[in-house]
Specification:
alpha+beta; two-stranded parallel ribbon; 2 strands; EC 1.14.13.59; FAD; NADP; L-lysine 6-monooxygenase (NADPH) activity
Length: 41
């Protein structure tokens, strides 16, 4: 089964960290973030 997401962030720079923090509180958003370091993904 395919999983759809509203947006994908690549890297854990300041912009994506801010977006992750802000989007965490919005239950309707399905977000996915990737980083080269597995413990950040």
């Amino acid at each position: 089964m395919k999983k759809s997401v509203d947006f994908i962030g690549v890297g854990t720079g300041p912009f994506n960290l801010s977006i992750a923090a802000l989007s965490h509180q919005i239950e309707e958003l399905n977000c996915l973030f990737f980083d080269e370091h597995p413990h950040f993904s």
